[in-house]
């Protein structure tokens, strides 16, 4: 009696497709657990927020203040900038390369299958560190840096995102593992073909190390009153050249970077040390509490008091 032919082993392509489908499902589940309410949900990890939307929804204007990564776990969205439409969904990530203003629309979302995504405001420190590591890669210069781009969601980036969001669910891993994984995520992002837009705009000049040194100086003296001239002097650059190169590499201006450092510092003082709004504002280098409150609301979407209560209360 003839024996049946052995079942053919799965091809590498089939295995890759299976792994990609599993990772996509895992990402969808992780984002769904984190996006606990309709609209935005701010996460304790700095710069990270989750989005749940249950119907098609237009956005008249939304602002990005520096480099930002958006990964969609379910549904589809279109962002518009100067007449250019960029569509992204679970198969494509979206990156804003610097400060910019967009219009957008979520075009695939229902109550049964909500739009799920996360947005991460990439720390300029990580961008500079990664660009320094990639400095030996030669790129053809672009005629004009683009404000945003979409790239294909490949398995290494998808896997990295899943490991990052998993780490965020455990308090110990959130402190130890998550920062390492997010550096890997940015590394993979900046090695992608689409990210040549960022790396080409930076160029191959030997200023990345000085910009990174300036960032370290600003972090160490976040409570001091500093000017562009002070920081440029510290890294032995002229103020104009320093400001130009800082913006090219970090994708934000030096003073915008310092402002965000101060706001993040104040956020930590309120959440970890229990300081009141006025105390945190003063420690973070703000002379005016009202000015601090306005800047805090712009960055975090809530007043300092509201924000602190949201994370302190169950």
TrEMBL record:
Pfam families: AraC_N, HTH_18. Keywords: DNA-binding, Transcription, Transcription regulation. Gene3D superfamilies: Homeodomain-like. It comes from Pendulispora rubella. InterPro entries: Homeodomain-like_sf, HTH_AraC, HTH_AraC-typ_CS, Tscrpt_reg_AraC-type_HTH, Tscrpt_reg_HTH_AraC_N. Residues 212-310 form the HTH araC/xylS-type domain. This is AraC family transcriptional regulator.
């Amino acid at each position: 009696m003839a024996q049946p032919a052995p079942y053919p082993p799965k091809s590498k392509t089939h295995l890759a497709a299976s792994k990609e489908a599993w990772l996509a499902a895992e990402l969808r589940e992780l984002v769904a657990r984190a996006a606990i309410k309709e609209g935005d949900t701010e996460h304790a990890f700095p710069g990270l927020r989750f989005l749940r939307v249950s119907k098609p929804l237009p956005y008249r204007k939304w602002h990005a203040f520096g480099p930002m990564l958006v990964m969609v776990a379910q549904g589809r969205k279109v962002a518009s900038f100067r007449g250019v439409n960029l569509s992204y969904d679970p198969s494509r990530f979206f990156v804003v390369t610097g400060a910019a203003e967009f219009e957008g629309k979520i075009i695939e979302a229902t109550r049964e299958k909500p739009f799920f995504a996360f947005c991460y405001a990439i720390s300029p420190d990580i961008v500079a560190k990664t660009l320094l590591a990639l400095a030996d890669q030669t790129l053809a210069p672009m005629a004009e840096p683009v404000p945003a781009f979409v790239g294909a969601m490949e398995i290494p980036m998808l896997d990295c995102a899943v490991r990052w969001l998993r780490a965020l669910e455990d308090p110990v891993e959130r402190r130890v593992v998550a920062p390492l994984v997010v550096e890997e995520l940015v590394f993979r992002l900046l090695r992608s073909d689409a990210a040549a837009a960022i790396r080409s705009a930076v160029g191959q000049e030997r200023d990345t190390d000085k910009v990174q040194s300036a960032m370290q100086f600003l972090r160490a003296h976040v409570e001091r009153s500093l000017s562009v001239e002070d920081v440029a002097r510290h890294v032995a650059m002229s103020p104009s050249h320093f400001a130009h190169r800082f913006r090219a590499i970090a994708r934000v201006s030096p003073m915008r970077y310092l402002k965000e450092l101060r706001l993040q510092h104040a956020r930590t003082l309120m959440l970890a040390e229990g300081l009141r709004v006025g105390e945190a504002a003063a420690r973070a280098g703000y002379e005016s509490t009202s000015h601090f409150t306005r800047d805090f609301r712009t960055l975090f979407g809530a007043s300092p008091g509201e924000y602190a209560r949201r994370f302190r209360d169950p």
